[in-house]
Structure formats: structure tokens, C-alpha cells
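ugh ok fine here u go
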Amino acid sequence: MKEPQTPIAGFTDTKRHYEILDGLRGVAAVIVVLMHLFETFTGGNHLVQIINHGYLAVDFFFLLSGFVIGYAYDERWQRMSLGEFFKRRLIRLHPMIIIGMIIGAIGFYYGASPSIFPLVGNTPLSQVLLIMLIGFTLLPIPISMDIRGWSEMHPLDGPAWSLFFEYIANILYALFVRKFSNTVLSIFVFLSGIALIHLAVTSPTGDVIGGWSLDAAQLRIGFTRLLYPFFAGLLLSRIAKPGNIRFAFVKSSILLIVLFSIPRIGGATHLWMNGLYESLTIIFLFPVVVYIGASGTLSTGWTSKICKYLGDISYPLYITHYPLIYIFTAWVYNEKVPLSNAWGEGLLVLLASLGIATASLYLYDIPVRKWLMNKWMV
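structure:
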């Protein structure tokens, strides 16, 4: 994720910026939107999901974040306080959380569907506004306060669950993990990897899906999905020495899309096989994608423009698209629309998601972050 370029406490940032990694985040964000659109037609059946492993984008985001956090901040701690670090992370992440909750509240009642969102039609506006205000803080709500029927910790904007865990990772890094030697960090990452494999191969659904509810089982999934990729990304930032790979953005993007799109492995009879594929993809192949991306450079031209645009809108797209998915899902279920008759509407949702993300970035996120930097980081 792209970091603000404002110096910290007299520290001038002269490090190279990994633009391709930003672009890869955008590729993954677009895949997430497409996966959520297709997911509407599968009835929750993981075995027939189109773009079957698209949800692994969250794990890829965690890996990228760990890499970028380590690269950007590991060498700054003699010049930077904890307060300054947390201010910078809040400035980077929190404005879009607020706009995502607002969009979710505006669209909430348009997603009314007794068959798929049973609580929406009976939820008073006062409760929606309360959940929105809680969402502004990113504090998760208990299942007893659910207003949609999916037991989400953020029922106005489901994907915010991963930002909740992102914040936890940032806190762990700043308070403890940044002080780990590479040896200690390697042991921590190794043990986290073992936990990830165990979760995936023993999962009753044969995958790592989950983490968005405030109950013991879902929290276990969320923390397991967080700890390996985020801190493996941190370790990678410390030990990797990027090379010089031609066409790195194209190569890493294609590899990432293939990893997300491979059909379900093992079927209903060998669920562990799919779990093994997903855990080993996170553990071994996602770091390869990041290494390839970090080893390339962009020249001027269409590739550079696409990469920059995708990088710029990646986070706004991820955090604002899901309210439209709720509405699209309700329409599909209410009208009993098959996939074959929904291509136009699905394309419209994709384009609207890109439009909202672009508008949110330039009209809201960038100006607000600039104002906060000028106010807080002086």
C-alpha cells in the first residue's frame, strides 16, 4: 500500500517506491469485486465458486502490507515515535473506512431481501445510524447487534473486517514485532505457517474462508489468516534483495490471476486438498509474486498508466464496492435472476464500483489525507 511521502520528524524518504506492488494490489482488488459478483449465483457453495480462490486476495493484501510496512518503517524508529507511526497509519487507512460505512448506510435498505438478508427490512433507521457510527471507529459489533443476517462484524461494509485485523497487525508490529531479530521473526513466521496449514487442511469447508464474525471460530480464522502473511511480508522486506525482472508487472499480474482463478481442487470428497493448495499458495507463491513485483520497474507507457491507476484505486475499490454487492445480491435473489441474464447488471456494478472508488480517491481521500497530514504531522 502506498505510503504518504511527507517526511517524518526531519527524516527524508529517499527509498525507492514499489509502484508495481501498488498495481498488484489493484489487480487483486478488481478480482475481489468480480469474485463477489459471481459468488451471488453460487448460493454459498464453495465447490462451484467462479474465480474460486479470489478471497485469497485478503491474504495477499496482508502479505503486501507486511512487506511495505517493514520496508517503509523498519529503519525509522530512531527518528519516529509510536504516536507518529499510529497517526500515519490512521491517516492512510481511516478516511476510506468512514466513507465506506457512509456508502453502506446509504445503500442499506436497497439491499432488502427476506431470503438472503432477513434482518434488513425490520431494522430501524436509528439502529443503522448507530452501526454506522460504530463502524467509523472500526470496532467490531457482536453478533447480537447484527442488522443484516450474515453475522458480520461490520454489516454495512463487510470487507472492513480485514481492516480490523490490519490494524491489529500494525499494533503488534509497532509494539513488539519490529524489535524481533530476523531469527526470532523467522521462527514466529514458521509457526504461523504451520497454524495456517492446519487451519486450511482441517477446515470443514476445505478452505481458509472466514474471519468476519465476532465469535471464537471466526476470530481464529481471522488471526490465522493475518499472522502468517503479514509477518512473512515483513520478513521478506528484510531479507529479500529484489533483482531486475523484465515485464514484472505483467508477469506477476498473470501469475496472481491464475492463482486466484484455478478451479476448486479435490472436490467434495477431498476437501483437504483444496486447503493444502490455498495454504501453500499463501506461504510460498504469494511471496514469489511480491518478489517479482519488487524486482521490476515501470517505464512510461500504457502499462505504467494502468499500474498507477490500479494502485491508486486499490484500497478505495476494496473498501467501497461491497455495499453495491449487497444491492446486486438482493436483486438477484428477489427477482430470481440467473447468471446468464445478469451480465449487463454485473458489468454495471463493476463500472459503478470503479467510478465510486475513483471519485472517493480524488474528491475525498486525497484531500482529507493531505489535510490530516498538515494538521497532525508538523
